[in-house]
Write a structure and sequence with these properties.
Helix content is 33%, strand content 25%. It is an alpha/beta fold and 240 residues long.
Length: 240
């Protein structure tokens, strides 16, 4: 709470924002993947980030999640500036406040679906009865309670991604960041995942920032952020 007060954060302020966020990679003469991006994300908002390959979408998401550090500028979550956090502080922030969903699921193959969902809660030190309760609740919510004891190799791609969604929500994060979450799925399975995001967004008021090449998903978004050459070139309103 002291961090929030020091930064002047108040409920209703943007839950996540960037200020002149920049990331350069020392390739050749240098590549600027994210170029002075300033963005505000409101609590409970559903945002899509779209753009051509190489436009900086995934790099931006990595910076928002504290998976990478910027060359310049700032990321601020509920008044907490990432630049003031060391690696342990960033890890705690990710564990408590941010959920991640990736294109290739990143499930642990030697664990069951239920064990994959439970893992973040066990790492956070939650009591085992709470871990079991939340795991069952989340698997039921994504329609996989009957597949709880199956390994990832026994699940379809769409089912694996739904397990990954449940895992991302395990510690009840306020912000979920998804990087091309439907990119490895067929159209029907991808649509199911986006609708699942939207349901959690509507029912639990969790904030979603989703990077995607599927601009047709804009109907589910509150805003669509278009990126080109590392910059935000246009922001459009989506579904109310």
């Amino acid at each position: 709470m002291s961090d929030r007060l020091r930064e002047g954060y108040r409920p209703g302020d943007p839950i996540l924002r960037t200020v002149n966020l920049t990331k350069r990679f020392p390739v050749g003469h240098g590549v600027t993947a994210v170029d002075r991006v300033s963005l505000e994300v409101r609590p409970g908002e559903f945002i899509l980030v779209v753009g051509p390959s190489g436009s900086g979408k995934s790099t931006l998401l990595a910076l928002l999640g504290g998976l990478d550090r910027p060359t310049a500028g700032e990321v601020i979550l509920e008044g907490r500036k990432y630049s003031r956090l060391n690696e342990n502080g960033l890890a705690r922030l990710r564990r408590s406040s941010i959920g991640f969903v990736f294109q290739f699921f990143n499930l642990l193959g030697d664990l069951t679906a239920a064990e994959n969902v439970a893992l973040p809660m066990r790492l956070a030190g939650l009591p085992e009865d709470e871990v079991r309760r939340r795991t069952e609740d989340l698997l039921a919510a994504v329609g996989l309670i009957e597949r709880a004891n199956h390994s990832p190799y026994e699940l379809s791609g769409g089912e694996q991604q739904r397990v990954a969604v449940a895992r991302a929500l395990a510690n009840q994060p306020k912000v979920i960041l998804a990087d091309e979450p439907t990119g490895n799925l067929d159209r029907r399975s991808g649509l199911e995942v986006i609708k699942l995001f939207k349901r959690f967004n509507a029912e639990r008021r969790q904030t979603f920032v989703v990077v995607t090449h599927e601009q047709s998903f804009s109907e589910f978004a509150d805003r669509v952020v278009h990126m080109e050459d590392g910059r935000i070139v246009r922001v459009e309103g989506g579904a109310a």
